[in-house]
């Protein structure tokens, strides 16, 4: 029993020693470690390595590239909210006239797919609609304008379908005033003539998703 206790203590000390060894590393160490974690499919580990890179080397030029790599890695794994977070942080820190139209488009795309995947975060959808409007106004000659316009129309139709479904659920509860309020939400009347596939939102999701 005593031998087992000594072995456990030794393992604990070794683990602590290994953990301590992960501090105060060069920027390229954290960067390469992040890439290794991505190759292994461990995005949580990659996020941790990036956090160490950023905290220990806040002015490293590797951070800029690392953010985009992580954003694309999370997109590939359908982790769209995290991808959107990295795109957003990149724009705040490194956005300029040369990259803003493209990275902003990627962020809008991530948010759109996040809405589709999460089923259904209406506030995320509304926020992204506003951001998409800003994009189309600021970058009328962007090469991504057509793709962004397509996202915009799809989001408007999704929001109209969601409002219709919420109104239907209120009808089932005899909440006529609330139902009418959602039916009257038509900030873009030009989409009224476009066929919209109904959203089947489970009733128990309503309190958490709108």
Summarize the structure.
This protein has 210 residues and is mostly helical.
List the helices and strands and how they pair.
Layout: H1 2-20, H2 27-39, H3 43-56, H4 62-76, H5 80-94, H6 100-118, H7 122-138, H8 145-172, H9 176-183, H10 206-209
Provide a descriptive summary of the structure in words.
With 210 residues, the chain is mainly α. The protein contains ten helices and no strands. Helix 5 (80-94) runs antiparallel to helix 6. It starts with a helix and ends with a helix. 23% of the residues are buried.
Features:
single chain, 210 residues, mainly alpha, elongated, disordered N terminus, disordered C terminus
Query: What is the ordering of alpha helices and beta strands?
Result: HHHHHHHHHH
Query: How many E strands?
Result: 0
Average predicted local confidence, pLDDT: 83
Into which percentage range does the β-strand content fall? under 5%
Name the quaternary structure: single chain
Backbone CA Rg: 23 Å
Helical segment count: 10
* Low-pLDDT segments: 1-20, 203-210
Helix content: over 70%
Outline: elongated
